[in-house]
Design a protein that fits this description.
3 helices, 2 strands, about 60% helix, about 5% strand
Length: about 100
């Protein structure tokens, strides 16, 4: 499907290897025994990237019907991350506005 390349996530080296013969539940692999509120967004995004990369390079299999249902987990983390970044950008713009008026 896709060409293999080096995994872009350095943190993934510490993760346990994925079993290519076992079909994984996307959300369960990310959450473990925790609820979605207990998992930091950075952890969700990092693990989702690892799982999706492995799935797209045929290194693991994911439960296909469930995969689409569990996109909400990643989407929520991305929305919150986007909101946080937008807030930081707005704060930086507001802080630099007075400096631009002086120049």
């Amino acid at each position: 499907m896709f060409r293999r390349r080096a995994d872009p996530t350095p943190e993934s080296a510490a993760e346990p290897p994925l079993d290519p013969e076992r079909e994984l539940n996307f959300a369960r692999a990310i959450l473990g025994d925790r609820t979605f509120r207990e998992v930091p967004d950075d952890d969700v995004l990092r693990e989702a990237e690892r799982l999706l990369f492995a799935w797209m390079t045929n290194e693991t299999r994911l439960e296909r019907p469930k995969l689409y249902d569990h996109y909400a987990l990643v989407l929520l983390a991305l929305i919150r991350e986007n909101r946080a970044l937008a807030g930081r950008v707005a704060a930086l713009e507001a802080a630099s506005a007075p400096e631009q008026g002086r120049g």
